[in-house]
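Please predict the structure of the following assembly.
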Amino acid sequence: MSKKSLVDKEHPPRELELYFGPQHLGMVGNFSITLKVTGDRISEAIANPGYLHRGFEKLMEYRTWIQNFPMVCRINVVEPDSMEMVYAMAVEKLAGIEVPQRAHYVRSIYLELARIGSHLFGLWAYANMLGFDTVAQWAMYHRDLLLDLFEELTGGRVYHIYIWPGGVRRDFPEGFKDKMVSTLHSIGGCVPDYDATFFENRLFYERAKGVGKISQEQAKEMGATGQILRATGMKYDIRKVAPYAAYDKVPWEVPTREEGDAYSRIWVIRDEMIESVHMIFKLLDAMPEGEVYHRIPNPFKWNIPKGEAYVRVESSRGELGLYLVSNSEDKPYRVHFRTPSYPHGLTVLEKALKNASIADVGNIMISLYVVAPEIDR
Amino acid sequence: MNRSLKEKLEATFSDIKVAAPEDDRMVITTRKDAVLSVLNFLKTGGYQHLGLVSCVDWIEDNEFELVYILSAYLQDNYEYSIKEKTNIILKTRISRENPQFMTIIPVFANAEPYERELHELFGIHFEGHPRQIPLLLERDYSIPPFRKDFDTREYVKEVFDNIPVVEEKKK
């Protein structure tokens, strides 16, 4: 065997450009990153969004207030429900529509169900990326159980269009509450299994600890919200900061972690799912009887007075905002969504990938919880 | 709290309009050359979270309205105050003929992708922006596509109706 070292000291590795995505095994969704790498180290990362740009915000200017509902939910494929919520809230604010008490509770329960479903999907993506196929299959199965619930409630599995200006489209059908409780119990009963196989697994710890670390100062500088901020110890959650629906009606906690790395972000997501299940049970107990819908004017002749509104909700990925302008017409004048993945995927990701290794790209990106359609809109 | 901020703003800056239509919302309208200093003032006042940079095309007034939405991060973890609940909407108008404005990246670094998007979709040039390159679109448009005079339907008709039909060859 020759004694020549594999590392050629006379010719150090030069900088290469590496295209990561949109077709790549480590990439979720249609998104790509151009990496400048020297050896295994990333010296610069450039995010390339746009593969899913459908110009929704422009298209919405051509459609009436109600016609826009099928459009808004397609902005975030994984969790369309908070999109419906933010749009309905903005329309209600502009038009001055009140929502009945019971509808607030129904909305909160529905949004929490969607949050759990979205987190399970995120867990699927993350576990799959790390090679925990079993956990990924469980998460997908449990998400499917929730989709069954959505199908019974709204008729649709993925896109529901359930929240409506003035309330929700229909009340819970008979027996739905019991079914929901038993589904949530059966998912909750698997938490020890999830913990034993994944969350408390040494492999997960070794692979995620210290990866993609973001300090609180950096997170604030880059406009981060959601898990990224909560994993650095700040209890910033729009459901607490500016409560909407029925989130101020029951007590609940905002789970946080201190370290700000991928490991703590995934733990925050796990704790949030459990908190959401508890919250649903509390909301079900506190839910009043009554109407779930206040009639709105005829949607075909509905002109909303001139004005502007900015509303925020906490989607499963962070702060979701909507800037909506009306020019006293039957259509919106300007729509602009502030989606959580936008700063996370464009600003935070580029920064977090600097000096990381190529093997950690998927790890960092999925733990930042970036969902591409939300960036492109 | 909002009232004191309003008074402070009005005392510090001339030619500024501050309205607080609701407890949790404040709308500030200002001249375009005062934007950076107002943003700086608000940032030092604790409104560190730039949520959104947006633009509205008021074609009838022949102006673009730039909109900056700010809110505050939590000061401590045990109390949620009205300050964090408040959204500050800072607005300014620039001419539509010569859509130029200065970048706010020196104050809020995370404005970079937002301004890049506005440059692409509205054709506003941000002075001092480090990379005004396309973000979302793949084609070049004669009118930036999010302006009001860009008609999506007309564009689709023009582009896709003129693609020649493939005729099936008979054997």
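The helical segments of chain B are 2-12, 35-44, 82-85, 112-122, 152-160. Chain B has five helices and seven strands.
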